[in-house]
Amino acid sequence: MISTTRRQCAAIAAAALVGLPWAARAADPIQLEFGNWLASTSPQSKNSFEPWKAMVEQKTGGRVKVNLHHGGVLGSSRAVLNDVKGGVYHVGLLVDAYYYDTPLFKLLIGELPFALPGPTVATKVMNEFLDKYAKDVFDELKVRNMGVFVSDAYVMFSTKPIRTLEDMKGKKLRAAGKAWVQIAKDWGAVPVPMQPEEAYTALERGTLDVMQYSPTGALGWKYYEPAPYVIRSEAPIIVGGLIMNKAFYDKLPDDLKKMFDNELNPALAKMVVDTYEKGASEALERMSQVFKASGRGEIITLSREERAKFVARTEPEWTAWVKEANRRGYPGEAMMADFKAIMKKNGLTPTF
Questions:
Q1: At 172, phi and psi to the nearest 5?
Q2: Residues 6 or more apart in contact with residue 233 via CB below 8 angstroms
Q3: Residues 228 and 143 in one domain
Q4: Closest to 81 in 3D by CA, of 97, 69, 64, 65
Q5: Are residues 248 and 228 in the same domain?
Q6: Is 210 helix (H, G, I), strand (E, B) or coil?
Q7: pLDDT at 26 over 70
Q8: Final residue before a domain boundary, out of 225, 257, 279
Q9: What CA–CA distance (Å, rounded) separates 27 from 260?
Q10: Structural domain harbouring 42
Q11: Is the domain of 316 the same as that of 190?
């Protein structure tokens, strides 16, 4: 009942800015509703979203007040696009993997297994790729792009040790999105679609054996408690976006539009990337300390030979992406060639 009430309040606040029938006028100061499905204790909430709230209010001289709603009280991670588009809240954190069957497919080239290594360089690669092939994606989706980013490389949180590819056989493995389903099968696992919000309980109950997730993000969810074996698979990563309700943006005064476009939005995207960049090693160290103290759990680094097996099994997914791009009417071969060229330009060697 509490979350429903908050959701309704946010919708009414949003209505005041997007002109829905029951709203008489915009609030003063402008109320910006930020729907965050991450926990308030997560590194992104503490090190990105809360500081950005303070920055917006300070830089705008109090003309904009940011209301942060943590813990998914306004909507789940899978509902972000529709919620932001519909004005349930104005700013949200988008997981592109959930939108395989939309124009965001173009950006999922960055989630190909073992393609990109980490947040800073990968974010640069994806933004260069976006500029060439996906500039209109967010316009097509009828939301405002505040910044595209890439997470730290994923690890696997497992209820049992995994040291070889053979150990994956039959394991119920979290698939973040449609493209990840085949990756799980390549590894001999059983793909299980799962939102981050549901995974802790699923690991406890055995409906999920292995949760793939960012080390930084996992601190907030504490997956390492029910799944204390952390396997450094280092792939894939998530391409994400920060999006704003278009009607909210359109109603901002011109000077505030300019401030969001040129300063506030880039600052938020940078905070998110910096948090991921610095958070992975800190998160793994924190988990290691927890495991040592409890006598249960381990950070597992795959041997070179075993990691090579994980990598080799996923080569077909690169070809499959090109075929799917072509099927949708995109220039798949050219997009892949340019993606690899952008990687090389930024000092990365394409895996395949």
A1: -85, 105
A2: 154, 155, 156, 212, 302, 307, 310
A3: no
A4: 97
A5: no
A6: strand
A7: no
A8: 279
A9: 19
A10: 2-96+134-150+240-279
A11: yes
Check: CB of residue 170 under 8 Å from CB of residue 190: yes
Torsions phi, psi of 228, nearest 5?
-85, 15
192/248 same-domain check: no
Question: Once rounded to an integer, what is the mean pLDDT over residues 58-82?
Answer: 97
DSSP-derived secondary structure for 148-203: EEE-PPPEEEESS---SGGGGTT-EEEE-SHHHHHHHHHTT-EEEE--HHHHHHHH
The type of residue at 316 is P
What are the pLDDT digits (tens) for 203-219? 999 999 999 999 999 99
Residue at 201 is within a domain: yes
Give residue 28's pLDDT. Answer: 87
Distance CA(181)–CA(320), nearest Å, equals 13
Q: What is the pLDDT of residue 27?
A: 52
The mean per-residue pLDDT over the stretch 309-316 comes to 96
Question: Is 51 inside a domain boundary?
Answer: yes
Please give the Cα distance from 213 to 235 (Å, whole number). 9
Mean pLDDT of the 5-29 span = 48
Q: Residue range 51-69: average pLDDT? A: 98
Helices (H), 192-330: 196-205, 215-221, 246-251, 254-259, 265-294, 304-313, 315-327
Q: How many CB atoms lie within 10 A of CB 299?
A: 17
For residues 200 and 299, membership in a common domain is answered with yes
Domain total for the chain? 2
Residues in the chain: 352
pLDDT in tens, 254-287: 999 999 999 999 999 999 999 999 999 999 999 9
> What mean pLDDT comes out for the span 223-235?
95
Q: What is the mean pLDDT of the chain?
A: 92
Nearest CA to 110 out of 137, 85, 90, 91 is that of: 137
Q: 91: alpha, beta or left, given left = phi > 0 and alpha = psi -120 to 50?
A: beta
With beta carbons less than 8 A apart as the criterion, state whether 9 and 89 touch: no
pLDDT of res. 234: 86
Whether the Cβ atoms of residue 283 and residue 215 lie closer than 8 Å to each other: yes
